Please model this.
Amino acid sequence: MEGCCGMKLMMLFAGAYVAGSINFPILLFKLLKKEDPRNGFSKNPGTFNVYRQHGFFWALVILILDVGRSLGVAFVSAIFLQTALMPWVGLGLILGNRLPCFHQFRGGKGVANYLGFSAFIAPPWALAATLAWLISYGFFRIAFIGSLTMVLILAAGTLLTCKFDPVAGFGVLCTVAVIFYSHKSNFIAFFQSG
Model:
């Protein structure tokens, strides 16, 4: 990786982290004087937890905001980077969502953000991943199983689009690891219940 390209990547990674640190559910519900989504159910300010606490409409608003922001970050990174480096910008976005500097480093799990970012890189795979989430949730009625299924399909689509480039592959692997680790409490609860 050349110095100029490395500098662009570092700047885009940092910008993606800051963008991901803007947590829409926390900000929106503070503005609307609704309860912080981190205080109920899974304690996660993500789309599904918003659905549980405030209903379909607000969950859809949050999903659109998260996916839209992620598409924008991916679009900007595509202007400055080759496709094989874009997964690293996606990792910055997910880390910002997970550990937001504006919200005491208590954020979401990054699934909707990963969907939006991957939708720019591999649109058909994003559609397939969304359908897989719907089918998984419909069958198991456990949101995190659908989410992790979605993440694996998005990762596969990104890897294929990047032609299995090792640099891209490592960025995808790191992103998937962060998202899976973010679901640690879900795994623990799942295995303790059954």
